[in-house]
Amino acid sequence: MKKVVSVSLGSSRRNHVARVEILGEEFEISRTGTDGNMDKAISILKELDGKVDAIGLGGIDVYLYAGNTRYVLQDGLRLLETVKKTPVVDGSGLKNTLERQAVEYMGAQGLVKQDTRVLMVSAMDRFGMAEAFAKIGCQLTLGDLMFSLGIRLPLYSLEKLHNIASKLMPVISRLPFRMLYPTGQSQEKQHRFNSKKYAKYYDEAEVVAGDYHFIRKYLPKKLKGQMILTNTTTREDVEELMDRGASALITTTPEFQGRTFGTNVMEAVFLVLLKKAWEDVSAEDYSQLLRELNWQPKVIRFKKESAGDMQQVEKIG
Length: 317
Prior knowledge:
317 residues; alpha/beta; Rossmann fold; 2 domains; seven-stranded mixed β-sheet; five-stranded mixed β-sheet; 16 strands; globular
């Protein structure tokens, strides 16, 4: 049995283990959260190195993208370079293929079209997703400055984002990652003020897309029927979105035993199946595996029953 482990800076409350067969190969897939503790993450990575088949880095990015420019986050690189023997990935390769195809699927199903209003909480984190929305002709609101840095400055084009990134990323890439993204217990908490801070941008959107911890960070108490496109969710996340008034949840990665794993986990699985070094894997390699697996986004529609306020869930895909 192949073993794939995600070592995450996220909360240990979200830890999970699943056993699954993928293309005839048995996998044990697990997640180990370190509650934002970098030293603990490094210790676990050292312990796992050479003892498992692949490792995913969760709750952190090594690489962010703006256009054709790749920026390296120093905390992510520190974790990556801790591992000397076992293949290790951060999910960025799969984001460029799986999540791009998820948006194309939404377009083909009529879920989004030209001029659909989309709030991308961080386009640099999900560059494939953002570019796919732009290709369809959606009206983008990019929240990179707001959700990462707390600067109330929405951006409305990828070109503007690329220009700002070229000026800011050489400095931002050196900041502690906890200053840019919720880690540890901060993933589990939402201050009441946060639900109002950027409510205007949620309210204006028809689709809210991107990393779920970013989405939840400023999630309004009441949504207005927006669709949520994200990847890593638990049963509790699904219930929260239903209770707050989302019309649908679309997840890009497959569900195992009641939750979806992050792109870093699935990219690690793909690396095992491909039997290649990370730097040798192409976008076409990932796309070919996706075709073989016939994976499609999972669409969960939330519906109110006509007789009252109770809600039922209709799963598609």
